[in-house]
């Protein structure tokens, strides 16, 4: 099972390609070029993907349909880009500022992902919206709202943390699948089809703080799920509030 195995380094294919001379090694500081909203729309039609590096709240409020939310604030930003995005797809960055876009591509260069960056959305989401292009949203809920809704309407919960985190304590009745398992990992196929949900079910997605869960929400949106809620604060907030958890054997966690 993939959940019992460590995720392979996100940059392994790039390292091999670089060593074999098939991927040029970046010798200078990479620069992301600005792209107009119209050009971004054209490139999306041609198969480019969007990596929205903004916060979970900003992504949740409004984002480009099909975007991956991988937060630049994460210490694993470039690794997560490598884990979650198709290996051969050119990338367009969405950030709040040009400076953030340059920081993103700079970080991606550490694992030879910078060559995949076609550019960044000039003017950010404000420019995209002002140009009349469509957006979608991803509602955010806090742990108290989640707790209330679990008892009132049977909201489903998907926990996308690592196995060790899950075993230490999780919400009773939650379903477990690490967020990296939602997409293919080298020779390991995606397991998203194993989820016991239908696309029209209401699902709250939780991790430790809300960042990985927002990434998972963005993947699920791409796969046609529509009633998704990102849990702000995640299991860290849930535990701090003293809300009930169970361990891997289903026994209450004190």
Q: What's the topology here?
A:
Blueprint: H1 12-19, E1 34-35, H2 37-45, E2 49-52, H3 56-61, E3 68-69, H4 77-84, E4 91-94, H5 98-109, E5 117-121, H6 124-130, E6 140-141, H7 143-153, E7 156-159, H8 163-168, E8 175-176, E9 203-206, H9 211-222, E10 228-231, H10 234-240
Parallel strand pairs: 1-5, 2-3, 2-4, 4-5, 6-10, 7-8, 7-9, 9-10
Helix pairs in contact: 4-5
Structure explained in plain terms:
The structure is a single chain. The protein has 254 residues and is of the alpha/beta class. The chain folds into two domains: 129 residues, 3-Layer(aba) Sandwich (Oxidized Rhodanese, domain 1); 101 residues, Oxidized Rhodanese, domain 1, CATH 3.40.250.10. The protein is built from ten helices and ten strands. The strands form two sheets. Strands 1-5-4-2-3 form a five-stranded parallel beta sheet. It has a five-stranded parallel beta sheet with strand order 6-10-9-7-8. Helix 9 links the parallel strand 9 and strand 10. It starts with 11 loop residues before the first helix and ends in a 14-residue tail after the last helix. The model has no long low-confidence stretch (mean pLDDT 91).
């Amino acid at each position: 099972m993939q959940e019992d195995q460590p995720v392979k380094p996100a940059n392994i294919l790039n390292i091999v390609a670089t060593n074999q001379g098939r991927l040029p090694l970046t010798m200078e500081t990479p620069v992301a070029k600005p792209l107009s909203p119209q050009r971004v729309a054209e490139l999306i039609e041609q198969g480019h993907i969007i990596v929205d590096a903004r916060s979970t709240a900003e992504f949740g409020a409004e984002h480009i349909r099909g975007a991956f939310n991988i937060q630049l604030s994460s210490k694993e930003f470039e690794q997560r880009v490598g884990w979650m995005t198709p290996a051969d797809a050119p990338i367009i960055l969405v950030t709040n500022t040009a400076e953030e876009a340059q920081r993103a591509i700079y970080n991606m260069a550490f694992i030879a992902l910078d060559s995949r960056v076609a550019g960044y959305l000039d003017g950010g989401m404000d420019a995209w919206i002002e140009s009349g292009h469509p957006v979608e949203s991803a509602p955010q809920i806090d742990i108290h709202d989640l707790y209330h809704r679990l008892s009132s309407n049977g909201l489903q919960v998907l926990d996308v943390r690592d196995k060790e985190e899950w075993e230490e304590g999780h919400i009773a009745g939650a379903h477990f699948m690490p967020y990296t398992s939602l997409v293919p990992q080298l020779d390991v196929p995606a397991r998203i089809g194993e989820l016991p949900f239908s696309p029209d079910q209401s699902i709250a997605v939780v991790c430790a703080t809300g960042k990985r869960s927002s990434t998972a929400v963005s993947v699920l949106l791409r796969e046609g799920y529509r009633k998704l809620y990102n849990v702000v604060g995640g299991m860290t907030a849930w535990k701090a509030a003293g809300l009930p958890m169970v361990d891997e054997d289903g026994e209450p966690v004190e």
